[in-house]
Amino acid sequence: MTGPDLGEIEAWFDNVLSGRTTRDEADRWAMRWLSDDFAGVVDLDEDRLWALGLLAGIDLPDWPGGGFLHDEAQIRGWRDEVRARHHRGGAVARAGRSSVEIRFGVVKEQSWDTGVMPGEQRKPQTSEQRRRVDEIFGDVLPETTSDERDPERRTGLPDDWYRENRPPHHDR
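Below the sequence we write its predicted structure tokens.
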């Protein structure tokens, strides 16, 4: 099974914007296709996965106002981008492991690694890159945990933790 094409996904955006379909209905429809892709029932390309991902989050609530996180202007922009991708054949021109995407007259260079999770693509690969990131953002996680740094701190008695974390007002 091939799944919906970009034209069908675009129609769902149009239906939400015109009020013919609820955001919840569009979300459920998109999630069904995404779960089918995850299960290997259907094979979706990059553009269709992207568009279905947007449609799947269309009903996210805005906290605490009770409205929606994404307004109609944003949805219209998504629909227009889906339409643009649909009309240029649904695929971004690829050259090796990178692509050039033209969006709203601006050329944007993209690159990707297959089989790598998005968060992993941003991990620095060398110690120099890691040092530069730490210099800018700080060391988010220490290299060693507190129990590795001071192994002699606890005696191993069951009440050690309670003694170490005793509130100051209990010492009176």
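Helices lie at 6-18, 23-39, 46-56, 72-87, 118-121, 127-137, 146-149, 160-164.
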